[in-house]
Amino acid sequence: MTPSQVRYQTALRPGAALKLSPGSQHTIPHHPATPRSSIPTPPTLGGVRIDLVTLVVHEYDPAIEFFVGVLGFELVEDVPSTTTDGRPKRWVVVRPPGGGAGLLLARADGERQGARVGDQTGGRVGFFLRVERFDLWYNVLKEKNVRIVREPRTESYGTVAVFQDVAGNLWDLIGD
């Protein structure tokens, strides 16, 4: 094993707790100005990508209608499935045209998950939709009565507006 691989395996993120022995706990200090070159990197294995992100929704069909009918995503899968204890559910995946990570639309199962619908990231923007032709996209969202939470503004990474999806989650609409 190379020294780089050893450093990666033993490194913890700043502020993480490190248990050295039963009952003891130490914290690694946070260093916000750590140069990128000093951050350990894992060996390159290749073939890695984020495939799906779960989005908890109240019901499948309104979520499908929003992502497919409003945002133009592709419905990749919609198949019957069962929970680990045998109750029926669906496996529903939507993906932006042209690829990229997809969304697994998962119906909330129980009070705990239901309480998270629309607030999966604690009130902050949690999803980012980068588009060509920002003005066209923005106008389409308005025409389709999508709730715009923050009007367009110019940032260093492009023009951005914030909207809510059908479940209430916040998204950045970002254009170059």
TrEMBL record:
Record Gene3D superfamilies: 2,3-Dihydroxybiphenyl 1,2-Dioxygenase, domain 1
PROSITE patterns reported for this sequence: VOC
Species this protein is from: Dactylosporangium sucinum
UniProt cross-references to Pfam families, sorted A to Z: Glyoxalase (PF00903)
Residue ranges occupied by any VOC domain in the UniProt entry: 49-176
Protein name: VOC domain-containing protein
Annotated region described as Disordered, given as residue ranges: 13-43
InterPro entries noted in UniProt: Glyas_Bleomycin-R_OHBP_Dase, Glyas_Fos-R_dOase_dom, VOC_core
